[in-house]
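Thread title: Can someone regenerate the structure for this chain?

I was given the following input by a collaborator and told the matching structure tokens would be attached. They weren't. Posting the sequence so someone can regenerate them.
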Amino acid sequence: MKVAVFGTGKYYSIYKKWFINVEITAFLDNDKSKQGKFLDGVPIFSPDEVLALEVDRIYIMSHYINEMSLQLKALGISDEKIYYTYDLAELGFQPEVEMPTGIHHEICRARILLISDDLKLNGAQYALFYTVQILKRAGYEIVAASPVHGEMEENFAKSKVPVIIDERIMTGKLDELSWAYGFQLIFINTVTYYNLLLKRDRSIPVVWWLHEPECFVKNCLIEGLRKIHNENLHIIASGGVARKALLKYNEDFSIDVLRVGVPETGYTAEKKLGDKFVISVIGPISYLKGQDIVVEAVSLLTGKERSDLEVRFVGRTDPGYDASFADTMEKNGIIKKTGELTQDKVHMEYERCDVLICSSREEVWPMVVIEAMQHKVMSIVSDIAGIKDYLTNEQNALIFPSENAELLAEKIRWCLNNRDSVKKMGERAYEIYKRFFSMEVFEENLLSVIQDLLHTEGEKGR
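Best answer:
Regenerated them for you:
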């Protein structure tokens, strides 16, 4: 069988071995810089050339499957010819599953499986890790699973939580994963693996925890989202933005909101000496996070104002994203890029900065803003971020219209001229953290959900 693969990035690199029993005769990619080149000895074409290809199937290897399938259909490709990651099992490849040793079925309240899309150090995975810590303390036996390895595994290991690595999580259904049987509750973290819900044992309760804005949800296969059965499925969103995003594509879902919490670190570091006002922007450098908006805002300040500032971009640059705008500003001494930092160093960043900027174009629940609150650091927040509903402009935060660099520049200028007020606003932000986002509040809300699902409050040795 001859196939074409649409997408030459992360998904293909993970799943290329699944195509061992078929012949890949062409790749398709929208990136013009790749077109005309070769990957694994196979030419890369523009999708506009797809009708000229003599292939039996086209496999979409990307998160943007809805957008890419619509693109293929618009070019004249029929539904019957389009296949997705969760169709890969039909090709007959059997991946090796990495089962951890030392899973001890001790006396516990219940066994809970937590499945995540990856184990990177990002907001959704930290939310999952904090959940693991709470459930462990409450006496539950926890097993985690992911299709790929990641830095978060070290944290799970320290908490003595075994991790299963199985690529089929990205391609299959729950009832196809034999190791997923024998649990009393299954957590699926993030919207990405909705495919797992398409076929499952409905006698086992499943919690589907959403953290993504609409730009992620709309790139799922919408017809797949509409096939998910509600029975014994409990959907929770980390904020109203994520809830609204999924309901737009399946209004039959019942979705509750469970606010995430952040532990209080108690970390202290001496404030940076000097007269410069330090602004930190923490998160991957990407279009979605909007660091280019910050650069534009800073460029609108006067030379004197810029000389009073130190702007720090903390995080890696997303693969394929053109961050040359930041490189130019860094060469001019206006911005400093630190690269990705360990969690301890990120906490040090909060302690040493005066203000955090969240400039995201879409954002459900920016963990960095919650972490900044915990460190008594005021944030300048885009009004697209869901957390704005818990903030009061000019009382405990500054809120600006998303993508409006001119008004963001005005907020920065105000901070430069009102440093005492900025400090007081940071202290008031800490009060919001304690009221809504502390681990104590999160633990109470989370355990209430779990106990309601399992009916195990007060039980032992189930």
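The chain has a mean pLDDT of 87.
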